[in-house]
Structures are given as structure tokens and as C-alpha cells.
Amino acid sequence: MIHSLFLVNASGDIFLEKHWKSVVSRSVCDYFFEAVERATEPENVPPVIPTPHHCLINVLRQRIYFVAVIQSEVPPLFVIEFLHRVVDTFQDYFGVCTEAAVKDNVVVVYELLEEMLDNGFPLATESNILKELIKPPTILRTVVNTITGSTNVGEQLPTGQLSVVPWRRTGVKYTNNEAYFDVVEEIDAIIDKSGSTITAEIQGVIDACVKLTGMPDLTLSFMNPRLLDDVSFHPCVRFKRWEAERILSFVPPDGNFRLLSYHVSSQNLVAIPVYVKHNISFREGSSQGRFELTLGPKQTMGKAVESVLVSSQLPRGVLNANLSPSQGTYTFDPVTKLLSWDVGKINPQKLPSLKGSMSLQTGASKPDENPTINLQFKIQQLAVSGLKVNRLDMYGEKYKPFKGIKYMTKAGKFQVRT
Amino acid sequence: MLGMSANSVSYNEQGSVESGVDAAQENSSIPGSISSGGAASSLFSADYKKNEDLKEMLESNKESLKLEAMKRIVGLIAKGKNASELFPAVVKNVASKNIELKKLVYVYLVRYAEEQQDLALLSISTFQRALKDPNQLIRASALRVLSSIRVPIIVPIMMLAIKEAATDLSPYVRKTAAHAIQKLYSLDPDQKEHLIEVIEKLLKDKSTLVAGSVVMAFEEVCPDRIDLIHKNYRKLCNLLVDVEEWGQVVIIHMLTRYARTQFVSPWREDAVFDENSAKAFYDSEEERRVDQSKPYIMDPDHRLLLRNTKPLLQSRNTAVVMAVSQLYWHLAPKHELSIITKSLVRLLRSHREVQYIVLQNIATMSIQRKGMFEPFMKSFYVRSTDATHIKTLKLEILTNLANEANISTILREFQTYVKSQDKAFAAATIQAIGCCATNISEVTDTCLNGLVLLLSNRDETVVAESVVVIKKLLQTQPSQHSDIIKHMAKLFDNITVPMARASILWLMGEYCEHVPKIAPDVLRKMAKTFTDEEDIVKLQIVNLAAKLYLTNSKQTKLLTQYILNLGKYDQNYDIRDRTRFIRQLIVPNEKSGALSKYARRILMAPKPAPVLQSAFKDRDRFQLGTLSHTLNSQASGYLELSDWPAVAPDQSVRNVEVVEPVKETGAPALSKSKHAKSNEKFYSDSEEEDGEEEEGSNSEDSSSSSSEESVSESESEENSDDSNKSSSSQSEKSSSESDSEKKKTLKNKKPQQQKLDSKDRKQKNGNAVKVESRSESESGSESSSSESSSESGSELDSDSDSGTDQKKNTKPKPVQSKPVIKKVEKKEVSLLDLDDFSPVPVTTPKSSILSPNLLSDLQGLLISPTASALQASSPVFVPETSHELLHRMTGKGLSAQYRFTRQPCIYGNSMVSLQLTLSNSTDQALENIHISEKSSTGQNIHRFNAIERLEPQASVTVSMGVDFNDSTQAANFQLCTKEDEFSVSIQPAVGELLLPITMSEADFTKEQGKLVGMNESSATITMTPENVSSQSVNRKVVSVANLGVIPSGQENIYRFSGKTVSSGSLVLVSVVLKDPDAVITINTEKTVMGSMLLRQVKTALTNSGP
């Protein structure tokens, strides 16, 4: 399975290595560096790189490459999924997963990696279990440890390891019992030149933050569960119950977790909340190009569209852009040719626009491609699919928890072709 | 001494620490290979000091200092720096009380032990001690480290530790043991045989924690030992949902491989899937085939696997979803395949790396089954933000999905892509258009025109790619497209990419007859620029010249000679060679002789059109989802997926207990999970006997957690109907006394009987009994027995004269009473027949075979379960021994034998059920055989109905019930015929006055706690060595007394439970092995019975022999 792991930063330095079997020389990464060089963008590095004796499987997260060394047949997704789980765990422990954070906490990182894999096979990846084995570093605990000489390492096997609910530790206690659920939907769309939708779909997740004492058993039901076309669950959800009654029944993990990811059936028409009017043109023979962009709200169900961010990769021939936004700020990077415009909130009375000219390389012919415009936005208190949680009930415990449900719609991969 | 060596090591390593990352890495792989002198070390004294500093900290008394030092050392290791010279100082702390310090030392040890083998040995004893620690976490981590230290000397220690840990009470430790197996195997492959034994043991483990890890070990150590899986197959299928996600992936992949060796193909053999045919076509095809040939019936186990993996498509773990998808791809009937589509498309929302792998697999699938993904075509539309490799894959899939209906949509989409800023992607799109054009003839022209338009594109790569693709397209249908060739000739001057120019020239030459005016002009232009062209272009110029010379020598003769002359002196030898060759070929002269006659045929031969095919064609020769599939080349350790067998191997090898009832077929009234549970125990234990009986020679059979008798619930339910019918008919028939009728009955029983006969003979020969034959005979379904008979065919031949054989068998004879352990003589209890159940002979002892599952199901209905803890269960073992009731000499020709059926009596709850076999050895019929009304002792006896007539040499079996009142006092009664009266008595053994019950281990201990003091009797005995195994203890005890076996968590403790028949008092028996002694404890309110039972168990366990 996984033989070794190397962490490589953006500038190509290996800043951490861990071996689960005999040591593999870090020169194996040379193949990886070659691949990085060949790729024009960091994202273009192929995830699986064969070398004469090993195979390198890498994932890129937070500008860090996690390069796993594989020696024999193993499902590549197995490794990829695990590496992402490692990153998630680091984020969970240190807040962020950056080179600095890893270096600062190298001992905890090492202890974690040691627990997560045994002989290259995952041993404990469940966050709740890991947290019982190795306590996350906090300033308070560091101080206490230095004074009392106690350690961050648990002495007992985490209760979860052996229980039927490995995701939950026993003996959880809170003074305020709360359960929050965020229904977050993302719209993936491709809008063509004329403004008509080529493809649009809604993907959603329900993220939960549950802080409840004891062993609560929750059920969550929807007003319109038929909307959910394809779902994937946290292991805690009882699948049979869902199959039979379309009710989510589960003993929740402690803390933050993703309860459910879903896909809204493609039959439903997707409401596109934003429209983009654009006029990007280059004239033959002139070194100037026109750039005009106007945004407006479409089907928003009366809710405000916020945190709007427009970005576009302009053609290579563009030297500079001289634009003026009606609101917000814009930046243009002459090296990467990336234009980004932070719009903020869309005011339906006064539509935001970005107008101006682009200067092209003199003598160069007019670029024959048009840039695509990527859009990001957020709409609070709206699940665009219309999904609604009906009720949330708790069994198994006596107290009355505080329950909260929040809806939000975001742009996923939202592109406008010009 | 130790210090010295440590010092020298540290000196040696000095240079490496300082000389940078790379050098350090080199050194670590060749420990101590650099012998830097003292001078070197003094140069880097600063660094030397630093490590010295760490050493001091490690040797200090303060825990916090040590911990700080270890943390810094771990930091060094993480950076890839060499810290091996600190080994002696670090290893001292291995026994530290501070758990974090200890863990860090472990980290260090695992990293450097391989390089410092001698010093590493110092730590071994600490681990050995820790292996015995009461804390399971400590035991487990000790095993982890011990097995991770790659020091060959400790292989025996590791082996021992693994064996011990494999039987540990904690599943976590057992899981660690499974991991350790692989480590030891990679360290010393010679241990394989021993390790397989451990794997075999762990495969039987019922813990979900262990399952994934042990299957991983299996895959690594002995993937070819598929026979180890049989017995665990159903368990693995049923546990799968609860196994942790990583284990699921490994198990699913293994089961895919397993299924391909064990089941027949669910795909229609000759319904080869044509790429272009629509889905409707398959359906009709299949329907038609169903009509023609006999319908395919899926093995229930095959179905079980598919059904139990399906929910996992909803897993959040992408690897699990992919694993299930590939399982469906490789195992499911084609029409069920569509359920994986949605889940795979869902994965496309995940990280870029996940997308990459999933798209690759979809690409392979979409070639064969485009119908699967067509509805989701839009999910494969490319976004400008996708990484290049993702874009290319999506393009590939879109190309595969293209058909007449959607091609226009796809081509419109492609048009956008061609304009992409990513030129490599644009070029790939053009190729994709070319593919679509060849695959779908309707759009070839449209595509060609589109491509021609692209020829005026500003970007060279786009143009070049278009030319190349057009060339390929034109090759397929050149005649109609002379205008395109003309157009290309016009564009020629503007095209600079050599490949494109070469392609155009080749086209000119190939189709010069279609453009007779233009081609010579192009050649004229090329003659001018020949010297400035690239090599590939030059070669094509020479080609064009030669072809024109042959077709149009009048206009081009001089031009050709000029070009050939230029080529003759070219710098590139390829071109010089080609020129020389062409000249000899086309210009006739005295030397060129034979060949030049054929010049035209050589150069102008019609050339086959190139086939544009996907890079993913035939990729499914690799199992989907594997690394090999991704790389498209076999990775080391890749396990080939075998083809479906033409004929399914024996299915019964998988017959084991079922953890969860399989709800495939109906009859829900009978499938109470509770009963199923009790069945499991029942079977698993009886199986142990069998294992023993078979001398443990066959590794498959010796499994203790599995049983061959048990058939999956579904099967038994199916069978239940049959057996009910057949046996009731049997009883009817045998009750009538006509001979001919009887023969018929016997005929019905023939297959099973044959089975038994063959087994008998086998046992006589001292051979191991084939499990298959046994299990089939038990399950009693016609189909399976016929199958098994074909398997053990040779034995059957001698039975051809079975009619006479049967007759002998039906007679009571000493052979039967020989103490062969065999599960026969299941008395039939049928709900429907209960009312008119008369004490007529049910069946002859030998042939009454009934699916045990059915029996216990029925039993569960008959006896109202007392408490959940005291679940009555079926007998683990039914002895065959019959006791003489009446000898034929004293009985004046009438002989009678009785035996205990160990079933709950249907005549009364407090009665013991008995079976009586009456035979007539006189030469005239006996009439009116019955039991007289008056009973000499106080027992309550349920008599059998009088037998009106017993023919000479015939025998009947009847059943009766006696309430012994929980005492071993004999029941005396009169057996009467028409003329005579015989006094007989039945003396029960104490063990027969019990009925087995099942309870959990915890309940057992609880109940045992209540029955102490007077109610407890115990004895210590010395066990004979052959009795020590778990099977033999279980077997011995259940043969003495009708008790249920309680699954025990501990290796050396055996527990049995039962209740007395009359009063229902608990009887608990436990046997604790303390090598070589054993303590037998019996707890019961009935103290007299307790002590009697104790005596019998004692004798049984001290006696050797079967």
C-alpha cells in the first residue's frame, strides 16, 4: 500500500518525509519534479506518475503536494482519498494546512501519520478517534503540559475503535446542547455566449455541527425528499431507514462533520440567479480591445446576491487592461493575464458594471478566442433547489437541545462563455 | 564497548549530516558507508556539539528534557536528516513510563532499526513484555513496533508474537496482528506457510475491525489460496457494510476476483456488445435468448454479493464507490449496470485527482456501454478551469458517447473547445472531431467542412492538427473530395508546421490523379524550396515527385530528376537513401531490372485507411479501478481477473453459517432472525465435530466457525416445501404395508441414501470424508444432491444395485449402531401434519433426512421461547446409538430398539422423545403391536398407536414420549402383540434428560453466578492430548449430554447449557482447560443430576478415542 509520503511545497522543496516500510530515498521525487516542470500549471501535474520501480500518486491541496510512494498494485483512489483525508485531519488539528503549520507541529504531524497508517494500510482515520489518541495542540494545553509534564498522547484505546459507532466517542458532555445544520447548495453551470444555459445542476451538502451530551439519536426529515436524486452519506446514517422512509436517522459524530452530500435530479430546471451581459471584442489591426461587463440578478426569490466575484483569464495577447468598475475593485495581473473583480453585493436598482479598454501587443493579430468568465456568489437563506428540512428530532437523551438550520446557495463551477 | 561503537558511528555520520539533504539521503540507504576521517568531524564541530547536546538531554533524568530531545530528533527525521548516531541514547528510553516519549522512541526505532540491527535487539525484550500488558493499546503498539523493526534475527519472535496476538481478546490487537503478517512476510517470505495458518484463523474472525486488514494480508501473502475464502465468503458479504471504509475497498476487490472464479457468467455468452448498437438492441437480444436457451439462474451467493455491495455506492469514500462500481462492471448482469452511473458521475464533483481516476474508468466503460453515460453527457462538458488531463479525458468520453442523435450537440460543444486558449486541448478536440467523423458516417462531411474551415485558423497547432486529421479522413473516401485537396493546396503556402506540410504533400501524391493540374504545380514550388524544408517534408517531396513521374511523366520528368539530384546530396542520410531507392525504382535503366516493372504497383498501391480508435479501447483487460488500469500497464502485484468458469465450481463449499438472514425468497413466517441466530451456533459447533472426524486433513473443512450443514436460509426455505411434501408422502406410504409401495418410497430416498453409503464406505476405508457429499445429503434438495453425486461419481457406481442395498439398510443391524458420528435421523416435525400425527413409522432411521434449518425453524415455532436469554435450540449432536429394548429371542421374533432423538417431544413439554424401531424376524406377520395401558412405574408415557400388522422381515419405526420426571429411574412398560406381552424397560442416561438452549456468554456467567454452592459440582481431570482441541472437547461433551454450545470468547474455556426436560431447570457445564488438566464445572439446581452428569462428562473427556 502506501510506502512513503513526501510533502513538497510550491517551490519544490521536500519539507517532510515519512516512511511506513523501509526507507525510500527522496531522490524518487525527481520524477515528480520533472512532471511538475513539464506541466504548465500546478494543477496540470498528473495525479499518477509511474517511475521505473515505484509509482507516485500526488494530490495538491493548499499549494502543497502530498506525494505518496507506491510500490505495488493498489487502487489509486484509495491512496488519493487517504491523502485528502490526511489533509482534512491536519486542517482539523491546526486550523489550516500550510507548510508553516506542518513545520510548527511536526511532532504532532508525525504522531498522527503514525496512527493513521500501519504498514501503509489505514488504521485510524476517524477524527474522533484520532483526537482521543493525540490531542490537538492548543496554547493552553501546551502551557499546562510544560508545567505538569502531562502529554498530548492518550493512554487508552479510543472507545470508538471498538464500538459500533466508531465515529463518536463516549462520555461527551456539554453544558449547552446544540445541533446546527447548514444546507449549502452549489450551482454548477455553463452559460453560453447568448446567455442561454448549456448545462446547470445543483449539488448540495448538509454540514453539521453537533455538540450534544451522551449518545443522542437524531432523525432529520425533509419536506420534499424526492428532490434528492443521488446521495452519499456519512457512515453514521442508517441507510435502510433512508431507503424505506427517506428519513435521515443517525447517531452523530461529535463536532463538525458532513452528514450528507446530494445531487438534485437533473430533470428539475435550475434557477440561475445571476445574469451577465458582456461585450469583449478585439478589432483587427487595432491594438485596443473593448471590455464591457454588467451583472444583474435573475431568479433570486427576492434574496440578495452577495460576495460576488468575477474572474476571467484574458487572452495572452492582452498587455494591460484599463477598466473602471461601478462598484467594488478590480485587479489585472499582466503576467498571468488574470482579471478579477470583487463586486460585493448586487444592487438591483443600480447594476454593477466594469467597462474600459484592453491594450494588445502591437502588431500581434487579434486573438481568436474569447475568455470565459467565472462567477462566484452567495445567497443567504435560500436553498435554490427548494429543499426544506421538515423536522429534527432527538431520541435517546432527556435534555432539550438547541436546534438550528441554515440555508445557503453558492456558485459552484459557474462559467459564462463569451 | 557499546559507547565506543556508538561513538564511531557518530563520527562516521558527521559528514553526512552537514553535507546537505541529498548526501544524507544517500548515506541513510547505505549506513555507515562513508568513512569520513576525524578531520572531517572536527570541521563540523558545531553540528557535532548540537547532537551531543541532544544526547545529553536524552541521558538526563528529567523526563521533560528527554521529551524535548525526542521531539527535536523527530523533527530531524521528518526533514530527512540523519539522526542515526543517537541510536544508543534513544533506545535506552524505550521502556519509559511517559507514553508520548515512548511513542516518539518507537517512531525513531522503526526508522533506524534496520540500520542498527545489533543495537535494536536491546529493545526487543521491552516489547515482549509490553505484548503481555493488560492495556490493549499498549499490546497493539508493541506488536506494531516489533513487527516494523526490519531485523531478520527476530523473525521467530515476531512469528510467535503474531500467533499470540491473532488469538488476543481485543479485536484491535488482532487487527494489528493482521498488519504484522504482511510485514513479516516482506521481511522473510519463507514464513509463508505459517503465516497462511494465521491468516486462515483470522479470516474466521467475526470482528469488522479485523476483516479488512486480514483480507489485505491475504491479498499480499497468498492471493491464490482462494479456497480459504469459501467458508468466509458469506460472512464477508454480510459484514461488509459495517467494515471500516478502507477495509471495504480491499474486500470488494478481493471478492470481485473470487466471484469471477466461482460463478458462471451472468452475461449472455454470444451477446457481444457492439459499440454502435443502442441499448434497446441488447434488451431485445436478451429476451430472445431467454426464449431460446435455458434461463440463466444466478447463484444466490453471487446475488448476495451484488445486493450487499449496492448500499456502499452511497459511501462518502470515493474509493469505496469506485470499488463497488468496478465490482458491478465485472460481475453484474448488464442490465443492472446502470445503477453505478449516478454514483460515478457524483464522484466528478470531488477533488481533481479523484476526477482524473474516475474519468479514466468512465472512459473505459463508455467505449463498451455508451448507453450508461449518455443521459449524463452534459456532466462531461469541459470547463475552462479544468486541468488539461481532465479536459482530455472528458473529450475522450464525449467522443465515445457520440452517436447519430447527439452528435450535433457534441460538435457544437467541440466548436467552443477548438477556440480554447489551451492549444494542446484545441488540438485534441480536432482529433476528437476526426474520431466522430469516422465513427458516424452521417456527419463525416460536416466534420470535414468544419475542419477545412479550421485550416484558416490563426493558430498553427490547430491548423496542423486539422490537416493531419483531414488527411486521415480523406483516406477513407478520397474520390469525392478533390475540392478539399485543392483548397489545401491553396493554403499550402501559409502552412508552416512541417507535419501539416508533409501531410498535404502526401495527399497530393496519393490523389494526384484527382487533381492532375494542381499537383505538378505544387511540385514545382517545392522544387524551389526543397533545401529549406524539414526532413519529413523533404521525404514527402521525393514521394510526390516519384508518384507524379509515374502518372504524369510528361510534365514532371525534369522536375523529378532535379529533386532527385537535390536529394542525392542532402545532408540527411535518410533522404539520400530514399532518393537512391526511388531513382532505381522509377527510372528504368539496365540495372534496375525486375523491380521497376512493379514501381507503379508499389508506390500507388491502395493504402488502408488508418483506424482512429480510442486510447481506452481494450483497457478493460485490466480490472477497473486498479493502478494497472490507470497506468495501462501491469503494475507489480496486480492480480489478474480470471474469466468466468464455463461451469460453476461446487457451490456448497461456501455453505456456512449466515450472519444475517438472506431475504431472497419468501416464507417470511419461518425466517425469524432469532432462530437463525441459534441455528448458527448449532451448526458451527456440529461442524467442529466434523472437522475432527475428518482428521483435520483438509484445511477447508477444519474451520470451526463455519459449518457445511447449514445452507443459506434462502436455500433451506426453498427446500422446506419439497422436503415437507416428500417426507409426508413417505410417511403415508410406509404406513401402508404393501411391499411395492415401500419400494417406491425407497426409490425416492435413493440419492441421499447413496450418498450416505458412499460416505460409510469412505469412513471404513479410513479416508477423509468429503464435505460436499455430506452437506448435500443434509440439505436434501434434489438438485444439489444430484450435483454432488456427479462430483463424487465414482463412488456411486458401485451403488447401482441400490435396491438391495436399501433393503439391507432398512433392517436394524449392528453396523448402524456403530458409534459413527453422523447427523441423520432427524425426526420430521411438520406443522401441517401435527393434528393427525400418529405414531406410525415416520421413516426408517437411515433415510429420514431433513434440512436441519427447517427443523429448527419449526421447532422455534413449536416451543414458545422462554426468555430471550434462554433460547431453546436444536440439538448440537444426535447420537445414533440404539439401545436394545427387546431381543428377538426373548421377544419371540419381535425385536425392538430405542434411541433418543434429542428433540423436544411433541406429545408433552415435559416428555423425552424416543424413537422405537420394531422388527419382525419371524416368518409370519405380527399383529396389533402396542404398549399396554398399565404401567408398572409412575412415569407418564405417551404410547404409539397400535401397529396392526408387521410383515415378516419388515420393520417400522415409531415415536413415543416418556416423562422421566428428571430422574434416571427406568420406565417400565409392557410391549404387547396379539399373542404375547413382554416387559421392557428404558433406562435413560442423564444426558438425555436435557434439552439444549443457547444463551450469550454474558448470560451464562450471570446464571452461573446464581447457581453456586450446593448447586455447583466440579472435578479436575487430566486430559489426554488428543482431547485438548476445541472440537474434541465440544464433541465429547455434546455426545454425552444433549447440551447447547455457547460460543466462547476465550480459547480455553468451553461452555454448554441446557435445561432439564421436565422441570426446565438450567444445567450449565463449563470446561476450563489448564494444560494438561481440565476443570469441569456443572451448575444446576438438580444436584443429583449434576453429579451424575459430571461423572459422565469426566469419563468421556478422559477416554481417548472418538
UniProtKB/TrEMBL annotation, chain A:
The keyword Transport applies. GO terms for biological process: intracellular protein transport; vesicle-mediated transport. GO terms for cellular component: clathrin adaptor complex; cytoplasmic vesicle membrane; Golgi apparatus. Its main location: membrane. Residues 176-417 form the MHD domain. It holds the Pfam family Adap_comp_sub. The keyword Protein transport applies. It is found in: Cytoplasmic vesicle membrane; Golgi apparatus. It is a peripheral membrane protein. It comes from the Eukaryota. Keywords: Cytoplasmic vesicle, Golgi apparatus, Membrane, Protein transport, Transport. PROSITE patterns: CLAT_ADAPTOR_M_1 (PS00990), MHD (PS51072). Belongs to the adaptor complexes medium subunit family. PANTHER family: AP COMPLEX SUBUNIT MU. This is AP-3 complex subunit mu-2-like. The gene is LOC107708250.
UniProtKB/TrEMBL annotation, chain B:
Keywords: Cytoplasmic vesicle, Golgi apparatus, Membrane, Phosphoprotein, Protein transport, Transport. Residues 667-822 are annotated as: Disordered. It is found in: Cytoplasmic vesicle, Clathrin-coated vesicle membrane; Golgi apparatus. Residues 699-709, 778-793 have a biased composition (Low complexity). GO terms for cellular component: AP-3 adaptor complex; clathrin adaptor complex; clathrin-coated vesicle membrane; Golgi apparatus. Residues 993-1102 form the Beta-adaptin appendage C-terminal subdomain domain. One of its GO terms (biological process) is intracellular protein transport. It comes from the Eukaryota. InterPro entries: AP3_beta, AP3B1/2_C, AP3B_C, AP_beta, ARM-like, ARM-type_fold, B-adaptin_app_sub_C, Clathrin/coatomer_adapt-like_N. This is AP-3 complex subunit beta. It comes from Sinocyclocheilus rhinocerous. The gene is ap3b1a.
